[in-house]
Amino acid sequence: MAKKDPYAALRIKEFNIFLMVRFALVFGWTMQFIVIEWEVYSLTKDPLSLGVIGLMEIIPAFTMALFAGHIVDQKEKRNLLALCIAAFSLISLGLFLLTWDVIVAGWDKHTILYSVYALVFFGGFLRSFFGPTIFSLVALIVPKKVYPNAATWNSSVWQMAAVLGPALGGFAIGWMGVHWALCIVFGLVMLSFFILLLIDRKPVLNPKIGEPVVESLKEGVRFVFKTKAILGAMTLDMVAVLFGGAIALLPVFAQDILKVGSEGFGVLRAAPAVGAFITMLITAYIPISKNAGMKLLVAIFGFGLSIITFGLSSIFWVSLLALFFSGITDGVSMVIRQTILQIKTPDHMRGRVSSVNSMFVGSSNELGAFESGVTAKLMGAATAVVFGGAMTLFTVVTTGIVSPTFRKLDLTKDLEAHENAE
Asked: What is the pLDDT of residues 54-74, one digit of tens each?
C-alpha cells in the first residue's frame, strides 16, 4: 500500500521537479539570509540590528498573510509561484548590487544598512505569498493518500537545502566575500524559476471564485480556530520558534562568544538542519502518525532543552551538538505539523489555512529574531537564549496539561480514510 512505501511521493515525476525548485529556492533564501545577517552585524556590531532584520520582514509578511491566502485560493498556483520567484530574483539582485563597492562607493554605513532593510521588507511581502502557494501546489501534484510521505520528502529537501545554504554561505563569506556570495544566491533563484516551468499549470479547485475578500478571510480563520488539531500544532510551533530563537543570535555567538569566525558560523547555522534532515529520512521509513499529539509535545520539549544547553555553552563542540539535537527534535515536529495541515485542510481552503499558519509560525521566525535581539540587548545573548528555551518548556508542559484532546491526537484513522477514498 502507498502509505507503506517510503518512496511513494518520489514516484511522481512532477513532485520530483517540485523538489528541485524547492531545493534551489531554500538553498538561495537561507544562504542569502545568513550572508545578510553577517554583513549587518559586521556593519553595526549591535545585536539589536539582527532583530531589526526580523522586524522588517515580519511587518509586511504578517500584514499581508490573510489577503495573500485569499489570492492564492483564487489563482492558478504554478504561475503564481513563478511570479513570486521572479520578484524574489529582484531582491537578490538588489542585495548583490548593494554589496558591490563600485555601486556603493561613497555611501555611508547607514544608507547601506537602510537599503538592506528596505529589500528585506519587500522580501517579507513576498514571503506572505510563497508559503500558501507552495503548500497548495504540493496538494495538486500528489494524491491525498501519499500526503504524509510527500510532507516527509518535502521537509527533507527543505532541510537539506537549509544545511547546505548556510554552510556554503559561511564559507563563501570567507572565500569570496559577501558580494560574490550574493551572486550565487541570484543564480540559484533564476535556476528555480526555469525548473518550475517544467510543471504543468494546475486547476483552481475553489468553487467560490470571486467571493468577497472579507467573507473569504473570515471562512479561513473560522476553520482554523474550530479545528483543534491544526490550532494546537500552530500554537506550539509558534511559541517554540518565537522563544527558541537562538539561530537569530548566531552571529553574536560565532564572533564574540565562541570566536569561530565565518566558517564556524556557517557550521553552527547548518547544524540544526543536519539533525532535522536525518530525522526526516528516518520518518520516511518509520511513520509517526500514531500518537502524533504526544510525539509533537515530546519533540518540542526536547527542542527547548537543546536551546537552553546552547545558551549555557561556551565550548564550540557542545554548542554544535546542542544545535544538532535541536534540529533532530524540530524535524519530528515539522513532519507531524505538515501532515496535520495537509490531512485536515480542504483543497479549496489551502491558501488561507497556510496563510494563517504563516501568521502563527512563519512570522514567528522574524518576530522571534526581533525578540532575541531585544532580550540580548537587555540581558546578554546567552541569557536571552536560555530564557527563550525555558519559555518553550513552560508552554509545552502547559499545553499537555490543559489540552488532553491534543495530547491524545492520532492521525492513523485520517490516513486510512484518505486511502480508502482513493
From this structure: 778 878 887 887 788 888 888
Q: What is the pLDDT of residue 5?
A: 76
The string of DSSP letters for 186-243 reads HHHHHHHHHHHTTSPP-----S-TT--HHHHHHHHHHHHHH-HHHHHHHHHHHHHHHH
Cβ burial of 117 (10 Å; 0-12, 13-18, 19+) is middle
Residues 6+ away with beta carbon under 8 Å from 401: none
Query: If pLDDT is split at 50, 70 and 90, which confidence band does 419 have?
Result: low
Burial class (CB in 10 A: 0-12, 13-18, 19+), 207: exposed
- Is it the case that residue 418 has pLDDT exceeding 60? no
Q: Which residue, chain included where needed, has cell 553552527?
A: 268
Residue in the structure block whose three cell numbers are 548583490: 96
pLDDT value of position 1: 38
- Tell whether the model's pLDDT for residue 321 goes beyond 90: yes
How far is the C-alpha of 334 from the C-alpha of 339, rounded, in Å?
9
Question: How far does Cα 219 stand from its chain's mean position?
Answer: 25
Kindly report the pTM of this predicted structure: 0.70
CA 422 to chain centre: 31
118-127, 253-262, 273-282, range with greatest mean pLDDT: 118-127
Long-range contacts of 229-233 (CB under 8 A, 24+ apart): 229/293, 229/340, 229/344, 229/406, 229/409, 230/340, 230/341, 230/344, 230/345, 230/353, 230/357, 232/293, 232/399, 232/403, 232/406, 232/409, 233/296, 233/336, 233/337, 233/340, 233/341
